[in-house]
Amino acid sequence: MVTLSRRAVTAFPEDALLNHYAGYALYCLASRSMETDTDASHALLKEAESFLKRSVGIQPIMESYALLASAIGMRIDGPVSAMTLGMRSGAAMDRAKALGPPNPRVRLLEGISAFHTPRAFGGGHEAALEHFLAAIELFAKDAPQPPLPAWGHAEAYAWLGQTHAALGQAEAARTAFERALELEPGYVWVREVLLPGLG
Q1: DSSP percent split of the chain into helix, strand, coil, nearest 5
Q2: In the Cβ-directed half-sphere of 65, how many Cα atoms lie within 13 Å?
């Protein structure tokens, strides 16, 4: 997916949505490698940021700004980077939310950010849970016209399940993971990592 996205952007560099999907593909790949190879993940996130900046420069798409916020925020690894990257990430997310009515993909990314942010700084698992439940409610009414972004529904349940698991709610987590697989049967991360991790 990443290779195809890069090639598509090379052929059509001024297409906002192709840049969006290239950034999204890199963001997903970086998310999977964050725990095993931080340096590689950060390199992917920087590349994602470049595509997403180009995307919003061509057309201000809500999801592109929200992904940009996440690609920046995920590189925070200490107090110094929190000051610089945190401000840039927050500004991009504010821009995303200002562009239109509540959006399930924006709310999903807010939840992922909250999941990884300490409660003392406005995050935490309880805050993340609220975002994921709100995202799922919004997904029930979500009907974007192709080729607009339509990703994230199964991912919202995957993150909801992780949040329930972190809160010690194993059965609720299992239910969420099973719903993610109903929506996306080939969701390898859920099937081979998250569900087995419940024991």
Answers
A1: 75, 0, 25
A2: 22
Q: What tens digit of pLDDT does each residue of 11-59 get?
A: 999 999 999 999 999 999 999 888 889 999 999 999 999 999 999 999 9
> Residue 78 is encoded by which pair of tokens?
């200490």
Domains and CATH numbers, the chain: 1-100 (1.25.40.10), 102-199 (1.25.40.10)
At 78 the pLDDT is 86
Residue from 54, 143, 147 nearest 103 by CA: 143
Q: Which amino acid is at 199?
A: G
pTM: 0.95
Q: What whole-number distance in Å separates Cα of residue 101 and Cα of residue 50?
A: 26
- Cβ pair 10, 1 in contact under 8 A: no
Q: Give phi and psi for 129, each to the nearest 5.
A: -60, -45
Length of the chain in residues, anyone?
Answer: 199
* Cis-peptide into 147, omega within 30 deg: yes
Separation CA 27–CA 82 (nearest Å): 19
